[in-house]
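Support request from a user on the community tier.

User writes: "When I paste my structure tokens into the form, the page sometimes reloads and wipes my input. The last time it worked, I copied everything first. Here is what I submitted, just in case something in the input itself triggers the reload:"
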């Protein structure tokens, strides 16, 4: 068995696009692509200054890259969407440092996908052993409290559990295309009351005399991305009191490097074409991912129209199988989204709280099981 060696990279550019793409292939989710990670770094959205120091882990066999982890050294827990504030507080209360920590994740993106890429022909369990050993060694040298892999695929979570990682589950909501022929066909599969509610909400938007435009790929201009950036900042300012995690430069770089993966849906006043709202989606060959939304004026149900109904309609027209609506949002259930689990794995280094954390995770996972069951009872679909 040939020994594997590890190398850490402080930027995606240091890895190089060709090398990155040799392991994260075209079948990877769009957020694991070199272009997306590089845009976050090049725009300054992730850096030591923002508390997201890029620290990607490469695993080599001789001189060949055989595995790559998208990783960051964190000095806080913002922008992760797997909440560990209670654990951080317990560390602080007892005089221990919880930060820095290392996470394998896509910054500001609560979407399940490929977080660790392992080259074809490489034994995955052997590669994970090498990754774990590298993280333990580096963590001891740098004083990390531990390492974490957020929104990983269930198969990876299973493998990491076998390596003594602790596992957490959360619940998100996703829409699935059951070969619907149109939005109206989709509505016919809903219970009468839910179907009437959706029709009523969509009619309210239509009665507001707004022009809805769906733009894809080369139809999207730099002006659209500037508009989206402003709307994104406005949304965060209203909700959180800051301008959000993503800079205007990020939106520009995303447009320049991943335009073919973007879908923009705009609402404008019919009388003068003034944009009043917009939503941004990212897509691949199978899934539409709802990402960012914002508006300059309030219209009843416009958020649902631009963020959900138009997305469902797009998936039906373009034969996409899934619509990932992002984190949280029980209101999605009534609009056809169903609950599913997301997974994250955690390993704490020399922690006095490991037993207590494992107990907390076990109780939390049991609560999420009950929560998912309760959500399933609220399904808007007819009984088949």
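"...and here is what came back when it finally went through:"
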């Amino acid at each position: 068995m040939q020994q594997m060696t590890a190398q850490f990279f402080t930027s995606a550019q240091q890895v190089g696009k060709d090398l990155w793409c040799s392991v994260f292939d075209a079948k990877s989710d769009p957020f694991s692509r070199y272009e997306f990670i590089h845009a976050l770094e090049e725009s300054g959205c992730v850096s030591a200054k923002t508390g997201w120091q890029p620290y990607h882990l490469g695993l080599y066999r001789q001189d060949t890259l055989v595995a790559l982890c998208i990783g960051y050294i964190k000095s806080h827990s913002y922008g992760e969407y797997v909440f560990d504030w209670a654990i951080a507080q317990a560390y602080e209360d007892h005089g221990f440092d919880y930060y820095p920590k290392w996470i394998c994740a896509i910054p500001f993106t609560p979407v399940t996908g490929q977080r660790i890429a392992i080259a074809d022909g490489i034994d995955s369990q052997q590669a994970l052993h090498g990754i774990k050993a590298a993280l333990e060694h580096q963590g001891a040298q740098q004083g990390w409290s531990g390492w974490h892999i957020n929104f990983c695929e269930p198969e990876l979570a299973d493998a990491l559990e076998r390596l003594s990682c602790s596992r957490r589950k959360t619940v998100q909501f996703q829409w699935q295309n059951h070969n619907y022929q149109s939005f109206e066909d989709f509505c016919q599969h809903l219970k009468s009351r839910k179907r009437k509610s959706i029709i009523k909400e969509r009619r309210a938007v239509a009665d507001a005399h707004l022009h809805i435009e769906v733009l894809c790929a080369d139809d999207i201009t730099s002006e659209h991305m500037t508009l989206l950036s402003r709307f994104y900042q406005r949304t965060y300012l209203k909700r959180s009191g800051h301008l959000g995690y993503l800079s205007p430069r990020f939106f520009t770089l995303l447009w320049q490097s991943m335009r073919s993966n973007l879908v923009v849906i705009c609402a404008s006043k019919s009388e003068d074409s003034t944009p009043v709202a917009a939503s941004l989606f990212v897509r691949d060959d199978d899934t539409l991912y709802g990402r960012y939304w914002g508006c300059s004026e309030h219209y009843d149900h416009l958020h649902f129209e631009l963020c959900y109904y138009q997305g469902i309609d797009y998936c039906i027209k373009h034969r996409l199988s899934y619509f990932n609506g992002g984190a949280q949002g029980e209101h999605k259930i009534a609009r056809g989204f169903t609950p599913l689990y997301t997974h994250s794995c955690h390993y704490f280094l020399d922690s006095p709280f490991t037993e207590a954390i494992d107990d907390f995770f076990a109780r939390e996972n049991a609560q999420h099981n009950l929560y998912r069951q309760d959500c399933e009872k609220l399904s808007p679909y007819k009984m088949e």
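Agent notes: The reload is a front-end session timeout and is unrelated to the input. The longest strand covers residues 166-176. The longest helix spans residues 354-377. Escalated to web team.
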